[in-house]
Design a protein that fits this description.
mainly beta, 8 helices, 38 strands, 10% helix, 36% strand, globular, binds sulfanyl-(tricuprio-$l^{4}-sulfanyl)copper, binds dinuclear copper ion, binds calcium ion
Length: 647
C-alpha cells in the first residue's frame, strides 16, 4: 500500500499495524509543519500499560445495532448543543439518533429565518453607521449552558466567536440568540465557560458570570504601537455578566489562554495555556517543556477592582487588573495561580464531583490531574509550589485533547494522533502518581474515525453526569460517508460508555466544522412552541394594520393569518425608505409564515405570534410580488401580494 492509497482513506482495510501507519502519515502530513512529530518522540507506546486496543476498526467494540435506534415517532432522550465552527452557528442534535434538529444562526447570516436581515437580528448582531452589519462572519467553538445548583437550568446557552471576539447568548425557550457582546482588547477569544455559583455570595447558586479566554497576544492597546515587540504584547482574561451581557472586568495574564473550565464552588476559573513562552511563531510556542494551567481567584479579582487597583486600556472603560506572576508573588493575596503542566496542553475539564481539573497534554502523551482543593490551599499560602497541586499525570496516548467524565470516577480523553478514545480511572492515576506500581489507570481504548477533537459525555459537565453516552467529534471523516467533493462532512461517533468496555453505536454527520458540544437530558430542556405576542413590542394588531407615510419614510404594518397577509397591494415611490412590520397571528404550533420580496434580497420568517421587521430602500421601479416562503397552508402558494414601486 503506497502513501497515496493511505491518503485515499483505505485505512479501515488495513490490519492494525497499517492503520497506525495510516494515521501516523496523516498526522505527520497535517502537523509536520508545526514540528509535532518531534515533540511526540518521547512517548513510549509499549509502556502505556493499556489493554490491547480494539484492533479491527469496529468489531468487538461495536454494538450489534438496533438497540439505540429511535423508532419513527419516538423522541430522543438527549439534546446535543454543538458549535458550528467557522460556519458561525450553533446546532441542535437529538441523541441517540444523531438527527439534526435545528441550526441556530448566531454570528452568521441565515436567509431561512432572516438572521442578519430583520431589523431585530441586525440590532443584536451590531451595525455600522450605514446600517449594514459590522461583521458577517464568525467562528463558534464552545457552547455551554447556564447552571443552577450544579446542573443545567435550561435558561441560556453561551457561545464564543473566535474570529471577531464576540460572546453570544441563546435563550433556550426559543433557541434564538438574544444578545451579542464584543470583547475589548482581545484576539482569538477561544475558551468560554459560565460560572456555576457566585464566588462572593454563596447563596447565589446559579450562573451569574461567563469567563472568556484569550488566545492571541496583541499590543495593548492595539493602535499601531509595539508591532515588532512581542515581549510587550499580552492577553486578557474576561468576565462577562450573564444577565446584562456587559463586560464586567478583565485580567492581564502571563502567557495565553485556550479552553476554560469553572469550579462547582464558583470560586475558580481555569484556563490551559500553551504559549507561556509568548512566542509569535510556532517553534517558539513549543520551546518550553512545560506550559501551565492558569487558575483565577475570582473573588480576589473583584475585591481588587473594588479597592481601585484597576486600570483601563485604550478606549475601553472596562476595569483591568494585573494577574501576572510578577504582580502576584504572595500566594495569600495572589489573583492567579499558574500550575505547570507538560508541553502545549489543550483542553481543561472538571470532574462532575468538582474535585479535579484535567488538562490534556496535546504534545505530551499525558493528562494532568490538578486537585481543586490544592489550588485553594495554594491561595491560602499552604502549598510550597503551584506544581504541588498536581495529583496525577498518567500516560494515556498520543495527542490527548479533551476529556469527558462518566460520574463514576472515569475519564474519557480524545487522542487526536492515535484516533482513539481512551478510558482511564482518576483514582488509579492518582495511586500510580503516588508510587503504586501495580495501578493501571488506562482501562479501555476504542478506535474512532478519525482524529477526534472534542469528546463529551451525557450530562458530563454537571453534577448529574450519568455515564451513558460519549460523543466523539472527529476532525477527519475520509472514507466514512459517500464522497461529496473535496470538502468532507465531519463524522461524529456515539459511544456507549455504560459498561466496562466502550461500544461504538453509530456515526452521524456534522456539517463542518463543529468543535465542542454538551449533551443535555431531554427532560431538562423547556422550550415554548408558540411565542407570546407581548414579547414583541412592535406587534401589529388587525386594527393597526395598514400603510402610513412620514415624508419619504413608509411604514407597512401587516397582520397575517394563514393563508393571507391581509393586504393585497403596497404602493410606494422610488427612493422611499420602506419598513415592513409583519406579525403572524396564527396561534397554531408549527404554523410559520415566510416573507420574501422578489428582487429585493429580503427573506425572513415569523413563527406563530411573532413579529419581525425589515427596512430597505425602494430603489427599483415596477411590480414585485412578495410571497410566503414557508409552506403553511393548502393555499400557501396563493399567499402573495403586490409591492408596487412607482416612478
Ligand atoms: Cu475547543 Cu477545537 Cu476550539 Cu479543541 S478547540 S478540538
Ligand atoms: Cu404562509 Cu406559506
Ligand atoms: Ca508552549
Amino acid at each position: 500500500m503506497n502513501e497515496t492509497d493511505l491518503q485515499n482513506g483505505k485505512g479501515d482495510l488495513l490490519p492494525d499495524e497499517g492503520r497506525r501507519k495510516f494515521l501516523g502519515t496523516t498526522a505527520t502530513v497535517t502537523l509536520a509543519g508545526a514540528g509535532l512529530a518531534m515533540g511526540l518522540a518521547a512517548c513510549k507506546k509499549s509502556e502505556q500499560g493499556a489493554p490491547a486496543a480494539g484492533t479491527a476498526a469496529e468489531g468487538s467494540h461495536a454494538a450489534t445495532g438496533g438497540e439505540f435506534d429511535v423508532a419513527p415517532g419516538k423522541l430522543d432522550s438527549y439534546y446535543i448543543f454543538s458549535s458550528g465552527g467557522h460556519n458561525g452557528d450553533v446546532r441542535i442534535y437529538g441523541l441517540p439518533s444523531g438527527r439534526l434538529l435545528k441550526q441556530i444562526p448566531v454570528f452568521n447570516q441565515d436567509c431561512m429565518v432572516g438572521w442578519g436581515i430583520t431589523n431585530e437580528s441586525k440590532k443584536i448582531l451590531g451595525t455600522k453607521p450605514d446600517g449594514t452589519l459590522k461583521y458577517t462572519t464568525g467562528d463558534t467553538h464552545h457552547v455551554h449552558g447556564s447552571y443552577t445548583d450544579g446542573t443545567y437550568d435550561s435558561k441560556y446557552l453561551f457561545t464564543n466567536d473566535k474570529l471577531n471576539c464576540r460572546i453570544a447568548r441563546i435563550r433556550m425557550d426559543r433557541m434564538e440568540v438574544d444578545a451579542i457582546t464584543e470583547l475589548p482588547n482581545v484576539q482569538g477569544f477561544h475558551g468560554i465557560f459560565p460560572d456555576k455559583r457566585d464566588p462572593v455570595d454563596e447563596k447565589i447558586n446559579h450562573t451569574t458570570r461567563v469567563f472568556c479566554g484569550d488566545e492571541f497576544h496583541i499590543p495593548q492597546p492595539n493602535d499601531g504601537r509595539d508591532l515588532d515587540d512581542p515581549k510587550k504584547w499580552f492577553c486578557l482574561f474576561t468576565c462577562v455578566d450573564a444577565e446584562s451581557m456587559e463586560v464586567r472586568w478583565q485580567l492581564k495574564v502571563d502567557g495565553n489562554m485556550d479552553l476554560i473550565a469553572t469550579s462547582y464552588d464558583g470560586k475558580l476559573a481555569a484556563a490551559n495555556q500553551y504559549n507561556t513562552e509568548g512566542g509569535a511563531v510556532a517553534a517558539d510556542m513549543m520551546s518550553a517543556e512545560r506550559d501551565a494551567c492558569l487558575f483565577v481567584n475570582v473573588a480576589r479579582v473583584e475585591a481588587a477592582i473594588k479597592a481601585g487597583k484597576s486600570f483601563t486600556i485604550g478606549d475601553s472603560k472596562v476595569p483591568v487588573v494585573d494577574g501576572t506572576k510578577e504582580a502576584n508573588k504572595d500566594p495569600k493575596t495572589a489573583l492567579t495561580c499558574y500550575v505547570p503542566v507538560p508541553k502545549n496542553p489543550h483542553g481543561v475539564n472538571i470532574s462532575p464531583d468538582g474535585k479535579y481539573f484535567v488538562c490534556s497534554g496535546k504534545l505530551s502523551p499525558t493528562a494532568t490531574v490538578i486537585a481543586t482543593e490544592l489550588v485553594h490551599k495554594f491561595f491560602e499560602g499552604e502549598l510550597k509550589d503551584a506544581r504541588d497541586a498536581v495529583v496525577a499525570e498518567p500516560e494515556i496516548g498520543l495527542g490527548p485533547l479533551h476529556t469527558g467524565f462518566d460520574g463514576k470516577g472515569n475519564a474519557y480523553t480524545t487522542l487526536f494522533l492515535d484516533s482513539q478514545i481512551v478510558k482511564w480511572n482518576v483514582d488509579k492515576a492518582i495511586a500510580q502518581f503516588k508510587g503504586d506500581k501495580s495501578a493501571q489507570p488506562v482501562l479501555d481504548r476504542i478506535d474512532v474515525h478519525y482524529q477526534p477533537g472534542h469528546g463529551y459525555t451525557s450530562m458530563g459537565e454537571t453534577k448529574e453526569a450519568d455515564g451513558k453516552f460519549f460523543n466523539s467529534g472527529n476532525k477527519f471523516s475520509k472514507d466514512r460517508f459517500l464522497p461529496v467533493g473535496p470538502l468532507h462532512v465531519e463524522t461524529e461517533q456515539l459511544i456507549d460508555i455504560s459498561g466496562e468496555k466502550m461500544r461504538l453505536l453509530h456515526d452521524h454527520t456534522a456539517y463542518p466544522e463543529p468543535h465542542d458540544a454538551i449533551i443535555v437530558r431531554a427532560d431538562i430542556v423547556k422550550t415554548r412552541q408558540v411565542s407570546d405576542m407581548k414579547d414583541f413590542p412592535n406587534a401589529v394588531g388587525f386594527k393597526d394594520a395598514g400603510i402610513t407615510r412620514d415624508g419619504n419614510k413608509v411604514t407597512v404594518k401587516i397582520a397575517s393569518q394563514a393563508p393571507n397577509y391581509g393586504v393585497d397591494v403596497v404602493k410606494v415611490k422610488k427612493g422611499d425608505e420602506v419598513t415592513i412590520i409583519l406579525t403572524n397571528h396564527d396561534n397554531v404550533e408549527d404554523l410559520t409564515h415566510g416573507f420574501g420580496i422578489e428582487k429585493y434580497n429580503i427573506n425572513f420568517i415569523v413563527n406563530p405570534q411573532e413579529t419581525h421587521s425589515v427596512t430597505f430602500k425602494a430603489d427599483k421601479v415596477g411590480l414585485f410580488w412578495f410571497y410566503c416562503t414557508h409552506f403553511c397552508h393548502a393555499l400557501h402558494l396563493e399567499m402573495r401580494s403586490r409591492f408596487i414601486v412607482e416612478k
